[in-house]
Every structure is written in C-alpha cells, then in structure tokens.
Amino acid sequence: MRIILTGGGTGGHFYPIIAVAEALKDAASEKKFVELDLVFMSDSAYNEKLLKQEGIRFEKILSGKMRRYFSFYNIIDVFKIAVGAIQALFRVYKEFPDVIFGKGGYASFPSLLAARILRIPVLIHESDARPGQVNKWAGKFAKKVAISFPEAAEYFSKDKTALTGVPIRSSILGQVPEEGREIFQLEPALPVILVLGGSQGAKAINETMLSAAKDLLGFCQVIHQSGRNNFKDVSARLSVVLEDAEFKSRYHLVDFLNSAQLRAASSAADLVVSRAGAGAIFEIAAWGRPSILIPLENSAQGHQQKNALSYASRGAAEIIEEPNLTPHIMVFEIKRLLANPQELEKMKTSAENFARPQAARKIAEEIINLGLHHDFQKTN
C-alpha cells in the first residue's frame, strides 16, 4: 500500500506526520497482509535524517504561502503555488497512492489538489482549535477528518469527523524521572522547569528567561530549549547574566532536544513553560505535566490563543499573554505554582484527562482502511 504524507513548514506539522508513520508501520506489521510504501511530499524535508530513519521517501514540490496582508512575496508565491500544483499532479499520478494523509499547512495544498483531481481518497488532520485555510478547503472533499480540539468540529461535516487529538511520537513518551535527572545532572530535591519555544525557539520567551534567570535559580533549576538559530546569541548573553551567579550550574541551556532528550527532560520536569502550538499542548498533556502557556501573539488566525484557551479552560494550564510577558510575571507565576502542590496536582490530572495517546494509532488504522477500500475499487 502506497501512502503519501503531506504537510509542512513547521515541526508542528512534521512531527505528527512522523508519529502517524510510526503507527502505520506498527498497524501494517500486525495486519501482515499490508506492505507499506510511505512518501513524504512537501516543499522541504524538514528533517531528512529522521525521514531516512523511518524509511520514508521524500518528494520535493514547490509551494507558496498566501499571506492575509499585503506583501510582494504573495506575488512570487502565486507562481510557486502554480508550479507546485503542476509538479504535484505529475508526481501524484506517477506514484498513484492508495490514500493521501494531509496534515495541513500551505505545503500540503499542491498534493491535496492533485488528490482531488485524481480522485484519490484523502484523510486530513487538523491540529488547531480553529482550522487553517487549506484544511477547511480540503475538508469539503476529504473522506475522513480528524480533529484535535472539540471546537474545530463546527468547521467540518459531522458524519466524517472524529476527535482524535494530535498524534504524538512514541519515542518522547514513557517518562522515567531518574533518566532526566541523570542526563541533565539535576539536583535531586529542587523543582525543574522545562522551557520550550518550539523546535525553532521563541524570541520573547528567550528574552524573558534571560532576564529572569538569576531570580529563578534561587528556588528551581531550568532546562531551556532556545532553538538552534538562537542558541549562540542566547548562550553568550546567559554567560554574562550568570557570570557571578551562585547557582549558575542549575541553568541547562540547549539548542534543540531530540526525542530521547525531550523524553528525559519532560520526565524530570515539575512544570513546563511553552508556546501554545497544538503539538506542544498535546505533548505536555501526554506527559501529564502542569504548564504555563505563552501563545504566539501573531499566530495565523489566532490559532495559539484559541488552543491555549481551550486547554486552560479544562484546568490543565495557566496562560500568560505575550504582551504581558515580563520577567517579574514569569518568576511570580512559576514561584506561585511551585508553592501550591495541590494546584499542580489538579493541573496534572486535568492534563492526563485531556491527553489522547492513541491518536496516531486511530488515524493510522483509518488511513489503512481507506487505502484497502481504494485498492479494492481499483481491482474491480
């Protein structure tokens, strides 16, 4: 069975695709009669090493992003979209998959357009509480729609929509607190704060953590993923900030956490500070960790604000809006939560209740069912 996986632009699209690919292989292995050929079709490989590791072929196609504001890049991207649509039509026809799984984002548009023209079954997944433009369009012809937040249901047909949550990679689950404390050489009795700005980091969070570092280290220790592009600058400035600090060894700055490191860091964490991307929220929920969410102020269509509100309304997180993000408020909120173990326990329980660890498996099984049905139609 040949399956095209499409989406891209950010880790929020890419890593759930990897989670679904892992689940597809597990499901196919159990069914025995299904042999998989997985193809990732997007404008960039994002993580070529991981694709090769998972045995997924990469097909590059052009795509462009249509912004909701005036930009000369829109003119250029119109041509990219047109070229990408033609490329995708020929590539998809050549591959002629049994099913296409669309994760959303501008990079999925050419492949989904080709699927519609060639009448190939499509299953899409929407991570956010408010769907993106490509998924709202694709939802009109997709055979199945998987959503992560209940609020997204109003945008799709009820008879083909299922609430699944966001697919999570199995490699970042299975928390063992001792593992994290050993890898990061953490002090045994001191609370641990895990700071995540997404795979690319987050400037506002980095700036706030730099200013708050000295105060935080008086009562906790920090594992901070700054993002690869920001690491050199953040590291240099942190060295200056903590030059004379008594507890500077308590601050653990990293550029990027791979799967094993992320599992270890989340295992040790008492509290997570993070952006409010859907993938990040569902990972935090799967870990069962209390959190402080800082939604990206200018996220497309206010996605992160809506995600954060949906999650926090269930008692699993606190929200600090980016315009209110100051070192003083960050330190105050972290200290307040760490001083209230009962509140942390309630947040932990709410996070665990919100989590949907079987999302990848449910989506994978539905993809295989669609593919088998399509294969039957092709042979009759």
Secondary structure: elements and pairs:
Elements: E1 2-6, H1 11-31, E2 37-42, H2 48-53, E3 57-60, H3 72-95, E4 99-102, H4 109-118, E5 122-126, H5 133-138, E6 144-147, E7 161-163, H6 177-183, E8 192-196, H7 203-216, E9 221-225, H8 231-241, E10 251-254, H9 259-268, E11 271-274, H10 278-287, E12 291-293, H11 303-312, E13 317-319, H12 327-338, H13 341-354, H14 359-378
Parallel strand pairs: 1-2, 1-4, 2-3, 4-5, 5-6, 6-7, 8-9, 8-11, 9-10, 11-12, 12-13
Helix pairs in contact: 1-14, 3-4, 6-9, 7-8, 7-12, 10-13
Number of strands: 13
Give me the oligomer status. single chain
CATH topology of the largest domain: Rossmann fold
Instruction: Evaluate the radius of gyration.
Output: 21 Å
User: Would you tell me the overall average pLDDT?
Assistant: 92
Percent of residues in beta strands? 5-15%
Q: Indicate the percent of residues in helices.
A: 40-55%
Q: How many structural domains in the coordinates?
A: 2
N-C termini distance: 17 Å
CATH class descriptor name of the largest domain: Alpha Beta
Please state the second-level CATH architecture of the largest domain. 3-Layer(aba) Sandwich
Identify the CATH homologous superfamily of the largest domain. Answer: Glycogen Phosphorylase B
Structure description:
It is built from 14 helices and 13 strands. It has 380 residues and is an alpha/beta fold. It has 2 domains: 2-168 and 357-374, Rossmann fold; 171-354, Glycogen Phosphorylase B (Rossmann fold), CATH 3.40.50. The strands form 2 sheets. A 7-stranded parallel sheet has the order 3-2-1-4-5-6-7, with helices on both faces. Strand 5 (122-126), helix 5 (133-138) and strand 6 form a beta-alpha-beta unit.
